[in-house]
Amino acid sequence: MARKMRDSGIEWIGAIPEGWSIARGKHILTLLQRAVFPTDGVITCFRDGEVTLRSNRREDGFTVSLKEIGYQGIEPGDLVVHGMDGFAGSIGISDSRGKSSPVLVVLDSSQDKKYLMYYLRSMAYNNVFLALSTGIRVRSCDLKWNKLADLLYLVPPIVEQHKLVSFLDEKCSEIDAMLSKTRSSIEEYKKLKQAVITQAVTKGVRGEREMKDSGVEWIGEIPKEWRKTQLRHCATIKSGITLGKSYSKDTVLIERPYLRVANVQGGYVDLNDLATIEVTPDEDLKYRLHSGDVLMTEGGDRDKLGRGCVWHGEIEPCLHQNHVFAVQTNETILLPEFLEYLTASDVGRSYFDVTAIKTTNLACTSSSKVLAFTIPLPPIEEQIEIVGFIKKRTLELNKLIMKKERLVQELESYKKSLIYEVVTGKREV
């Protein structure tokens, strides 16, 4: 027999079981302010909901505070909400003793804290926290204690809370295992694609043949008939327009779309978010892209360093900004598509990583370093063969990757809907 339901009066929840009550956070939650000990390591609340010592996940990529102002202690079992990233699901139960910045809200409760964790995550997944945001940026959600204290929470009988948690722990664990397996498959396919590209652009696709040492560590041996050369001997490079230029009021300007770093992905151009800029007719001609240009990114995050793809004239006319290089190859000796695959291969990744100007998390290259890129150069007829082979093989692998990525999306969506249905009483367990 179906359980009796009643209207909760909460828009994002709707009907709830009759035996469940509703309470504001201040009546069921307690804000903790624990002392910090000298031996405490730093704890972070990650977007996957894990609350643990940073050292348990990784050591790099974190911002280090020179002055730990307002830091607080955290104990295993504490309910933790990330004040800035809570909207994305950074809510969990700590598994460690440590300390954190005041951006983490540390809570105790007489209710089942794991049930409250799932409930708060469901709020995040249903954009409740974003609706409370007063900032102009997504990451300025600012979930401070006063907001969490004023929110309405569903409070099932404590015995039922424990039951719901046991069910969700089991089901979410199963889903997470499938997600982990699927993501691992995606990474394996990506590694295989990388290996296919690297093998083809350095060894060719004609089977066993006599090889010679290229003299370049990250290139290794190449076929005897091939040569090596710097990119400057078979291509020219053009920088793009610098943004923010001012003009006199009588200057004739025309509006043009232009490519940013975000538009230049590995192997393709993303035109979903295309910006425009006003330029003079001379600038329009100077910075206009031409079909066959190999677009290469100056840098930013490490994965953006020297990232490239061929422009096929998807939009005419179209410009590019100064953080995107346009490389024009001499197509009688170097195919644009072959250069694109070289930038994507381990050869390109190694070269740009070694020669980059690096800071903590960022890296950039320059036009001179792009032109100094030493490449293996097969005869043009063999380049055609190699490009054709890579296109066919990577198309097959990309289809497999996309299939796995769709499965990840489906599993993530199912997990979110399951949590919602359980913590709101829509699904009886």
Structure description:
It contains 11 helices and 28 strands. With 429 residues, the chain is of the alpha+beta class. It is elongated and about 80 Å long. It starts with a strand and ends in a 6-residue tail after the last helix. Helices cover 35% and strands 23% of the residues.
Name the helicity range: 25-40%
Domain count: 3
CATH architecture of the largest domain: Alpha-Beta Complex
The gross shape turns out to be: elongated
Whole-number mean pLDDT: 92
In terms of per-residue confidence, which ranges show pLDDT below 50 for 5 or more consecutive residues?
none
Number of helices: 11
CATH class of the largest domain: Alpha Beta
Determine Rg (CA atoms, Å).
Answer: 28 Å
CATH-level-4 superfamily name of the largest domain? DNA methylase specificity domains
Number of strands: 28
Largest sheet: 4 strands, antiparallel
- Give me the secondary-structure category: alpha+beta
C-alpha end-to-end distance = 13 Å
Q: Might you state the CATH topology name of the largest domain?
A: Adenine-n6-DNA-methyltransferase TaqI, Chain A, domain 2
User: How much β-strand is present in the residues?
Assistant: 15-25%
- For the largest sheet, list the strands in their spatial order: 4-11-8-9
